[in-house]
Amino acid sequence: MTVRLIICLLLGYAFGNILTAEIVSRTVAKKSVFTIGSGNPGMANVMTELGFGPGAATLTGDLLKTVIPCLIARFLILPEAGMAAAAWAGLGAVLGHNFPVWHRFRGGMGVSATCAAMFMVQPAAGLLSMICGMYVTFAAKYLSAGAVLIPGTFAVFSAFFFGPYVMWSFIILTVLMFIAHFKNLSAMVHGTGKRVDVLANANAKFGKYTGVIFLCISFVVDFLLVWYLIKNYINI
Questions:
Q1: How many Å from the N-terminal Cα to the C-terminal Cα in the chain?
Q2: 3-state secondary structure at position 19
Q3: Threshold 0.90, pTM exceeds
């Protein structure tokens, strides 16, 4: 099983090396994504610099390059391992995105790929982890804080529900997310980072009760997701 988990990891890494943002940038702007905006080969940079369409195309590609190896690993390479196979293929995809061999191991931050990997392992826990990260972003007003918490929360769920192979893959993904966001996290600690008040921005754009309504809905979704995980993964 260990050998085939490594194969799943390498498969994910091969797919992760396909930087969608670079393909989109060279197609649309005729130049490398590393030379535009922040230089980050991710959806946010492409959407900011090139527009919604190229940004959406980048996001789609980043999701697919994680979903495809996860499916291959889970159903073809190591079907008996199930979640573990998908988790290690997802880890490989994030490693390939963050450290592409063809670009001297300098890539993106892997947020989209990490979220896709969570959904391929267990959608309910993935969504719950993303909501927890969202709450931290709302409270701290720093996007990086929420980004790091997302795989960290999934690692905790994995310890209780999904077994050690999945847990360790997401512990590594949490470390990778921390490394990718270290500069922003350091700025946050020193109070020099850019703060984003998501709820205030939503209220200003869509109405003063938007944030409250959204939080109420998310609390209901949280309850249903937790109930689902307990019912299906804990014998009570």
A1: 30
A2: coil
A3: yes
